[in-house]
Amino acid sequence: MNIVILAAGQGKRMCSKLPKVLQPVGNMPMLSRVIQTAKTLGTDHNILVVVGHGGQVVVEACKDDDLKFVEQKEQKGTGHAVMQTLPHLRENEPTLVLYGDVPLIQSQTLKKLLEKAGDGFGLLSLKTENPTGYGRVIRQNGKVVGIVEQKDASEEQKLIKEVNTGFMVLPTPYLNSWLSQIDCNNSQGEYYLTDLVGLAVRDGMEIQTVIAEDEMEVAGANNKVQLSELERALQERLALELMNKGVRLADPKRIDIRGNLHCENDVFIDVGCVFEGNVSLGEGVSVGPYCVLKNVSIASGTKIDAYSHFDDATIGQNVKIGPFARIRPGTILSNNVHVGNFVEIKKSSIGTGSKINHLSYIGDCDMGSSVNIGAGTITCNYDGVNKYRTTIEDDCFIGSDSQFVAPVTVKKGATVGAGSTITKTVPENTLALSRGRQIVIEGWKRPTKK
Ligand code: UD1
Ligand code: CA
Predict the structure, then answer these.
(1) Which of 365, 294, 359, 307 is nearest to 333 (CA)?
(2) Per-residue pLDDT band at 146 (split at 50, 70, 90)
(3) How much is the pLDDT for 96?
């Protein structure tokens, strides 16, 4: 089939440098969502994107081998937009029209429309209590005979509550002839794609209609208010999908998924969490309130406490993290690790059962298993120019407020006394101390005010 995606509109009301169809919903440009949905309809379709305003930017943002971009230099209406694609259409296959600014259309709805249309003319309509702005679907004896745009409609026609969503399947062999017959003698001076409906009926064709079940699926965004409405609708849809797969959400209205979130059974997600990129949560994982998780995989049984932040990390089973933990790129936490409040970890692997419970910075570190890191421990990994690694082997005990001036290694079973600055290798099973000795001055008097 041919799939034509109209994406030439400027979207002045977005008040943005970014072309309208690149405005994001769920952190993905609206047009990319439409392309993604088009691709779910099958392989080997002839997908044509009509671009105009900001055309090059749109092409750059969305280009891929399965797409052709067609330029519409001036925006003279939806009919004019489809005209530009005529030389690129496969004559013997139907043509489906989609919209770059209507991103929530679902493939199951389009499949229904395609099935209903067969080789003929299919129209997706909507019944709505507030038809203002839409083209009205005109029926006679139950059959569609035409579409009248809001601006051309009589007062009587304006009362019609069945409207045109714009989504259509067209019989391609007729397109050339029909498009050459439409003109722009209407209130907007545009070539209307919707005029094809009347022409098809005149040619004795019956218009097959499917009525959209979900108004948000066919809603477009012309401004930031509508964009936010689409965002909410998408989030609600994603939340429902999760719950239907067994995820327990504290409040489906307070979750934001801006990528792909995969969950096993019995996951619990508290309010205010944001998921970005690819996130997977294993069985029984629990995510506390207001966490941000980006490109992270978390294995079963792990508990994440409030306000924790993850970016590009791999977390094992039965790990405890947070509240207020920051897990940065390249972090690998093995099973049963504990990471407590105000701990930042970057590009480090932490072995099974190790604990970093309070106020620490662990960067560029290879840590063995069953290590205990005292509060306020810091790996000094950066000399201002280069980064170096710290190695802390199995079963070490690191006293509070210690620093490791990398590159440095603490061998198995070693102990580091609190407040030490470690600059040289600590051998196995030894105690390393590097702090000044405590002195006591008897009879010391505090200064008095002069
Ligand atoms: C259109 C329909 C209307 C329908 C409504 C649904 C026509 C004439 N009217 O009206 O019946 O109820 O959509 O939202 O089709 N575009 C181009 N090139 C152009 C003009 C438009 O690419 O020259 C794109 C726009 O970027 C937009 C889409 O086509 O994505 C619809 O165009 P718009 O002018 O917004 O049509 P409506 O007036 O909303
Ligand atoms: Ca519109």
Answers:
(1) 365
(2) very high
(3) 98
Whether the pTM exceeds 0.90: the reply is: yes
CA–centroid distance, 8 to ligand 1, in Å, is: 10
Task: Reply yes or no: is the peptide bond before residue 171 cis, omega within 30 of 0.
Answer: no
Residue nearest to atom 39 of ligand 1 (CA): 134
Chain centroid to CA 165: how far?
Answer: 25
Does the CB atom of residue 5 touch ligand 1 within 6 A?
no
| Among the bound ligands, the one closest to the CA of 188 | 1
Element (H, E) at 405: strand 403-405
Protein fold of 224-432: UDP N-Acetylglucosamine Acyltransferase; domain 1 (2.160.10)
Least confident residue range of 41-45, 81-85, 267-271, 283-287: 41-45
Superfamily of domain 2-218: Spore Coat Polysaccharide Biosynthesis Protein SpsA; Chain A (3.90.550.10)
Q: Which amino acid is at 129?
A: E
pLDDT of res. 54: 72
- What radius of gyration, in Å, describes the C-alpha atoms of the chain? 31
Look over the chain and give the mean of its residue pLDDT values, rounded to a whole number. 97
- Give yes or no for residue 220 CB within 6 A of ligand 1: yes
Specify the amino acid at residue 20: K
% of residues, the chain, pLDDT over 90: 98
Mean of the pLDDT values across residues 247-263? 98
